[in-house]
Amino acid sequence: MRKPENIEMQDLSRPLSLPVEAYISPEYARAEGERLWAKVWQHAGRVEEIPDVGSYITYDIANDSILIVRTAVDMIKAYHNVCTHRGRRLVDAPSGAHSGSGSKKQFGCGYHGWQFNTEGRCTYALDKDDWQGALTDARTHLREVKVDTWGGWIWINMDPQCVPLREYLEPAATLLDPFELEKMRYRFRQWVVFDCNWKVALEAFMEPYHVAATHPQLLKYGDFYAWSKAQGLHGNDGYDTRTPEDGSAAVTTVHRTGKGRDARAMIAEMQKEFWETVGASTTETLVSAAARLAQELPEGTPSQEVHHHWLESARREDAARGVIWPTITEEQMAKAGLAWHLFPNLGMIPGPTFALYYRTRPYGVDPDKCIYEAVALERFPPGREPRTEWKYAEPTAQNWRMVIAQDFSNMVAVQKGMKSRGFTGCLPNPHQERKITNFHRNLAAYMGAGALRPL
Ligand code: FES
Ligand SMILES: [Fe+2]
Hints:
The chain is α+β, with helices and mostly antiparallel strands. The chain has helices at residues 21-24, 26-37, 137-140, 165-169, 172-176, 198-203, 211-214, 263-277, 284-291, 293-296, 303-320, 330-336, 397-418, 434-447; strands at 16-17, 42-46, 55-61, 64-72, 75-80, 101-103, 106-108, 115-117, 122-124, 144-150, 153-157, 185-194, 226-231, 234-239, 339-342, 346-350, 354-363, 366-378, 391-392, 453-454. The relative contact order is 0.18.
């Protein structure tokens, strides 16, 4: 389907309320299967997961499962993961695993043994003649699903009438292209199941407005006041020009400096802290280049110069080991901002040689349960990419580091709180949480719900 028509209608700079049904109603969660998940482009994996002809992965969403296969060096196909005989799920994910994956020339159904090749054609059905010629190729072929790639991700869409992926992703795709996300590879990928709605988990990472209360240890680096924008279906945020005090907003995508302290020490300290307490959204190169600033620059060097030196020094260090930074102008960096929401369920912090992203999905159609995934991507020297697997990790600070664990601490409590008869809907900050309001405006349009209520 085309994008819903009322998407651009509502003025998001005005205070609006978000309906609580979207988070807690079982009917709403079931309807999402039909009206949202069956209609949108969604990230189903990374291209690197299916490197060879025959490599496949499965992706489950609500009541659907999709099988994605590399059918040729330059061709990926996707099918509904269901046998056309009597409906057995064709490829099982091993019990307790994140998803199915492997490499096959033929997919055999475990029930009566029908076989399908990577092109989706049924190549074997036991006693086929019993159907008296009615088992035609068209009748038995696996049902195809739209598939495309952008940013190194595989995207699927179950709607045969959907708009092309690129059109769906704009303007985010153009604003994010300079980061060359497709050249990054997995550094780690972890997942866990939470007792909260997928939107609650996603929104725990959609605005820096929560930093002061949820991550108070970060306030020593300055004020996290951020702008937050609708970008069509998607949204982004970044730091306002009113901060930091030294006016270095244009180069703060990688990280902030603040509060007028010695920028050399501030950057070094913040990079070290992020590396230790997030474990992502920076790289070892950036951390070590930051640690050298105090030796390489005299005291009192203006903040903007320190920033520039830091990034150039990291860029050179990376180049020496074969990691060539993309060319991203300051204007492109400022427009891209700090963090993105790609509708409906991807949150991302991009950088020149790294990205940290989150994907959340409903667990079946249960409104109170979701699958949460966090992924660190990085640009590695050619041939030095680590081999990674999906790792299930209980939500402890040890498994997820302190900052992400702090975010986790709100999620189940929000899901519980929203069920209170004393709660009548969310009141997102019209300036700093506009990405969330935009998300719900677009969600309501897909769901056929009305406009968001003004306060
Ligand atoms: S359901 Fe697959 S072969 Fe019968
Ligand atoms: Fe957070």
